[in-house]
Design brief:
By secondary structure, the protein is an all-alpha fold. The chain is about 75% helix and about 0% strand.
């Protein structure tokens, strides 16, 4: 007997820890850095014991949120590399586009995480490592490493200024900036 899974059977259900992290992100987006285990318990619908089993402290919860954020960022980066290679396209423009691909990023969550990092600055280390890994990967594929570095710094600056609410570009302006930065890394070195 050949059994083909139905759509609901083939879809993976999120793990308890993923559901707890989803709840924690909603709490941070709503309440900022005042993240508490009790707020996550209330938001998630899990028991306090269930939340603490997965994340034994507020610090562990923040570490989980940061790990998930960096995993997603690395996944976009790696997907862009694979796709560029499959399409025989230049790698660096694809990586820069992936760097800009933060449509799914909740800026309120990032703001809350930044505030939480003020309490525990050592928690930024995983972000620093991923950023360094991506930067080194991009520079490996750059014909002009200084131009590539300038483009990455500009992308970082745009991301952080938007996260902090300092500079807001319209979607058209942001797309034009992204296109110009990509053009800079594809121009032949002088």
């Amino acid at each position: 007997m050949n059994h083909t899974p139905t759509a609901s059977q083939s879809e993976e259900k999120p793990s308890t820890s993923e559901l707890i992290l989803d709840a924690a992100e909603r709490v941070v987006a709503r309440d900022g850095a005042s993240l508490t285990i009790d707020a996550v318990v209330k938001e998630s619908g899990f028991s306090k014991g269930g939340v603490l089993y997965n994340f034994p402290s507020k610090k562990a919860l923040i570490e989980g949120m940061i790990q998930r954020m960096t995993d997603r960022f690395l996944e976009r980066h790696e997907t862009a590399k694979v796709q560029a290679v499959a399409e025989n396209a230049p790698l660096l423009p694809a990586l820069i586009s992936a760097f800009f691909d933060d449509k799914h990023v909740d800026r309120q969550v990032h703001m809350g995480l930044l505030a939480a990092l003020a309490e525990s600055p050592e928690l930024i280390e995983p972000i620093r490592r991923v950023h360094q890994q991506i930067r080194e990967d991009m520079l490996t594929h750059a014909s002009d490493p200084y131009v590539a570095r300038i483009v990455m710094l500009a992308a970082d600056g745009l991301h952080f200024s938007e996260t902090l609410g300092l500079e807001t570009c319209s979607p058209d302006e942001r797309a034009a900036i992204e296109a110009r930065l990509i053009a800079l890394v594809t121009e032949p070195p002088r």
